[in-house]
DNA sequence: ACATATTTGTACGTATGTATT
DNA sequence: GAATACATACGTACAAATATG
């Protein structure tokens, strides 16, 4: 006789079983609104007692809920119901972060992480129509909507042309405005390419999002009215909080 | 004295430890090409011996690699190095699946899963400018590139107008061609909205992709030259195999 | 067609580490 | 420092899917 009793039920006769049942029960409770958004879920020991299951099953269930984006697990603090809101970001010939969000009655924001001169890799240099070796002004920033981080940008401005651009960038709260003050009244998006993938740990941290939830990675090139590239960059959007839209509203 | 010896090393003095180290070692081997793409990884017992670790640690490491999209784990068969290729899909005013892929020297394909009359929900009906209750021809299909599934489409054609459209759809291998034979020589994309998320189990199965890797979910509306909606639908793209691009090539 | 071995999945118990309160 | 809460880790046992003879 085995030392411990096993309870792996015969699979038939039961719709859900094991950790799947626990996850399902918790999911239904969350979706029914029985737990407030942002509130703490019961702790693992409590759930073990409630479902009469081992810690393995409880943790597997919670982990599954986190992967589905319903909860956020934090070591030493607890497990919390995940909150989410979705803003629409319009892609087009003239994408302007500020305007794009104002359309949606949403307060935009920006935090500049760094502005510095940097060497370019082949990919970016080609986008900016520069011969290697080349340098550019590299600007890294976070974009906010209603106080929540929604994107992380890295922008490159080709350097002979934008040598004195840094103060303008630092002083204004918008790239568009900085470009206007630099004498570029209009520019348009020349190229965009979008891949979907899971975030790196750094990106998940910067965007304050679950590592199991995807991001949009957008490579883009903007050109001035003459068609000269003035800006190449990469944007990471949080898929938890951003939807991309195209076409007339 | 404890019954078994514990080996949780003192954290300092060690760059990687535990399952993280195992995952790292395996990842480096895969990325260095020491394991062929599509080939089987060593089994769990072998890895346990090799790393001197428990099954827990080995399984945690493999699971982490699967989440990163590097391997695919199949019960009863083994763990395999995941293969991936990326096709570019051009979004624009006139997206044509077949042409879009041919540009890239890729062989397109299509498999129709179903064509039938169906009732519409409010969202789709609004897109098609129909008053509820409304019906439409519902077409479900898979899109292939070089023999691999890359998208899953559900299209709705408004019904009074497209009453006799079904045979055309069934006979041709392209929606564009079917529309042409029905007398619609040209149409354009009116609206597209894209969200990124993890696939449902059904979607993961249809697209033959990892459940931990994201998909693009695109809602779109096509209109004829007069501006009347002729097609509303939803496309699920596999982010593992599709990149969306906009702008001139 | 069937039995057997292999391989991954689920499950429980226990012990200890680490972060937060 | 103590208590709480999640993370990692080992050992064991059986289930389910697949491959093999």
Plain-language structure description:
Two copies of one chain form a homodimer. With about 250 residues, chain A is an alpha+beta fold. In chain A, about 25% of the residues lie in helices and about 30% in strands. The first copy, chain A, contains eight helices and ten strands. Chain A has helices spanning about 20-30, 45-50, 55-65, 95-100, 120-125, 165-170, 175-180, 200-205, and strands at about 70-75, 80, 85-90, 110-120, 135-145, 150-160, 190-195, 215-225, 230-240, 240-245. In chain A, the strands form three sheets. Chain A has a six-stranded antiparallel β-sheet with strand order 4-5-6-9-8-7. In chain A, strands 1-2 form a two-stranded antiparallel ribbon. In chain A, strands 3-10 form a two-stranded parallel ribbon. In chain A, helix 2 crosses helix 3. The model of chain A is unreliable at about 1-15 (pLDDT under 50). The interface of A and B includes residues 67 and 191 of A. Strand 10 (about 240-245) of chain A pairs antiparallel with strand 7 (about 190-195) of chain B.
